[in-house]
Specification:
Shape of chain A: globular
Structural class of chain A: mainly alpha
Number of domains of chain B: 2
CATH topology of chain A: MetI-like fold
Number of helices of chain B: 11
Helix content of chain A: over 70%
Order of helices and strands of chain B: HHEEEEHEHEEHEEEHEHEHEEHHH
Distance between the termini of chain A: 61 Å
CATH topology of the largest domain in chain B: D-Maltodextrin-Binding Protein, domain 2
Distance between the termini of chain B: 47 Å
Oligomer: heterodimer
Largest interface: A-B, 29 and 31 residues
Shape of chain B: globular
Number of strands of chain A: 1
CATH architecture of the largest domain in chain B: 3-Layer(aba) Sandwich
Number of domains of chain A: 1
Strand content of chain A: under 5%
Structural class of chain B: alpha/beta
């Protein structure tokens, strides 16, 4: 084996260090990453849908603040937003979540993701043909009913693939929680990998973390795709 | 040549290199033309940009007492010093793989790290202080049990405080600014950091108080195991710079007066001058 390949193997794929770091990564890191991803995604989807409807509002007083929200949170570096919310709120005396790092981080990441998801949801909702809404209204549905029963289910279904991409970004984005300070048991996948890399003077723990991220994101992508396919077939057979 | 170098004292090693250099280039006292480095005639050094006053960036240039110390080592070896900024976790692996010759950072010597790279003679001993708010002061590090303490990620201070106060809850932050914000906002009870930084924070913020000083282990420069000549040459340079007062001078230049050179350093390098009392 060439000396170059040998160095790559020693630095990134040391089997002993890989194996040892996997245990902590799976036992402590994985549940924390999943917890934070789910919390942030839920907050992101809730804000995203709310802002998306705001972006489509007819009154400028609703549309304008929603537009500003999306522009600012998509444009600012994520690190700054997480510091502003996670450290800014407590510094201002608004310790709304006490000392719970994860709540601040979930809120911060959720608000950021909400801005991205708002644009995705808006595109999906607007892709539902106007004629369908008009037909629903003619049948006697209120505009809220038309939104919830006609526009929302179809609009969300159409944006599932880009939404999956966004979920992957959320999963990887959770590593930024380290900015707010983590105790040993609070560390998520990437923090553990970085700590272990520093102590073992070797980058193999980061490779182990990479494998875990893939184990989360790849099945999720295929799962959502299969689900989306089934729903599409379902809606076709119902026609 | 390597076997000769290994066996002899470091002063002799330098001398023999000087002789070798003088033979090949008689006019100039070029020390180590025989030294193998990553980039020929250059000492390529990894450094950190975020650890004032040890190693950081000032006016767009590497600065700090360890950075200047490394520049002096380069002069001793007759090599140009080139600084490359890195983060801490990739520093030792990169030196191991001979991406850099060494690092301008006192890396705490541990068994795990010794398995990866060789270490030079000590360039410092870790010294630290626990900073807390005066309204909830922690006077001794040993009293931190049951409290939450902010420490920079990956720091060698984490095992140190765990040993001194076993029930302490360590919360790792990416940098000292984030740790300080958390302390000010009451998100943590204390902040454990190197002596120079701790004293600077206490000086800047009158609502903060400090604990007693505690020491950790030996800090040294990492060098690849494949380059024993370079290790011997750097060791020789370090010993010379310790004894001729260069280190003492740099220490007083960069550290606040309250931060003193650890006693262990005087024991390690007999004859090393003390700073002048002001």
């Amino acid at each position: 084996m060439s000396i170059g390949l040998e160095r790559i193997q020693e630095t990134f794929f040391d089997p002993v260090i890989l194996w040892h770091s996997l245990e902590t990564l799976v036992v402590i890191g994985l549940p924390n990453t999943i917890l934070l991803s789910v919390l942030a995604s839920l907050i992101g989807m809730a804000f995203g849908l709310l802002i998306a409807t705001g972006l489509m509002a007819s009154t400028v007083f609703v549309r304008f603040p929603c537009r500003v929200y999306v522009d600012i949170l998509r444009g600012l570096p994520h690190i700054l937003t997480i510091y502003l919310i996670g450290q800014g709120l407590p510094l201002a005396g608004l310790s709304i979540f006490g000392r719970d790092t994860y709540s601040y981080a979930a809120l911060a990441i959720g608000l950021i993701e909400g801005a991205y998801m708002a644009e995705i949801f808006r595109a999906g909702l607007q892709s539902v043909e106007r004629g369908q809404i008009e037909a629903a209204r003619t049948l006697g549905m209120s505009s809220a009913q038309a939104f919830f029963y006609i526009m929302l289910p179809q609009g969300v279904r159409r944006v599932l693939p880009p939404l999956t991409g966004q979920f992957i970004l959320v999963i990887k984005g959770t590593s930024l929680v380290f900015l707010l300070g983590l105790t040993v048991s609070q560390r998520e996948i990437f923090s553990i990998a970085q700590d272990t890399a520093i102590n073992s003077a070797n980058l193999s723990p980061l490779t182990a973390a990479g494998l875990l991220y893939l184990a989360l994101t790849v099945p999720m992508t295929y799962g959502v795709n299969a689900w989306e396919r089934r729903m599409r077939m379902g809606s076709r057979s119902a026609r | 040549m390597p076997s000769i170098l290994k066996g002899r004292s470091r002063g002799l090693a330098i001398l023999s290199c000087l002789v070798a250099g003088a033979l090949s280039a008689p006019q100039v006292a070029r020390a180590d033309s025989a030294l193998q480095t990553v980039v020929p005639k250059t000492l390529t050094v990894a450094y950190r940009t975020d650890d004032k006053p040890v190693s950081f960036i000032e006016d767009g240039k590497p600065a700090g007492y360890i950075v200047e110390f490394m520049q002096d080592i380069g002069k001793e070896l007759g090599l140009e010093v080139s600084f490359v900024s890195t983060n801490f976790e990739s520093m030792v692996p990169a030196v191991k793989n001979q991406q850099y010759d060494t690092a301008a950072f006192g890396v705490l010597v541990t068994d795990e790290r010794k398995a990866m790279v060789d270490f030079t003679k000590p360039v410092g001993y870790g010294e630290a202080r626990l900073v807390s708010r005066k309204d909830a002061a922690i006077e001794k590090v040993q009293q931190a049990g049951g409290k939450t303490v902010a420490i920079t990620r990956g720091s060698a201070l984490i095992p140190l405080i765990n040993g001194l106060a076993p029930d302490v809850s360590v919360r790792e932050f990416p940098n000292v600014t984030a740790s300080l914000n958390a302390l000010m906002a009451g998100q943590v009870d204390g902040l454990f950091t190197g002596l120079a930084t701790a004293d600077k924070l206490i000086h800047q913020h009158e609502e903060l108080a400090g604990s007693q000083m505690v020491t950790s282990g030996i800090a040294a420069f990492p060098v690849s195991k494949d380059n024993p000549q370079l290790l011997a040459a750097v060791d020789g340079a370090i010993t010379k710079l310790m004894k001729d007062g260069t280190y003492t001078k740099l220490w007083t230049k960069w550290n606040p007066p309250s931060v003193e050179i650890p006693d262990d350093m005087y024991t390690e390098y007999p004859g090393m001058p003390h700073p002048e009392k002001k």
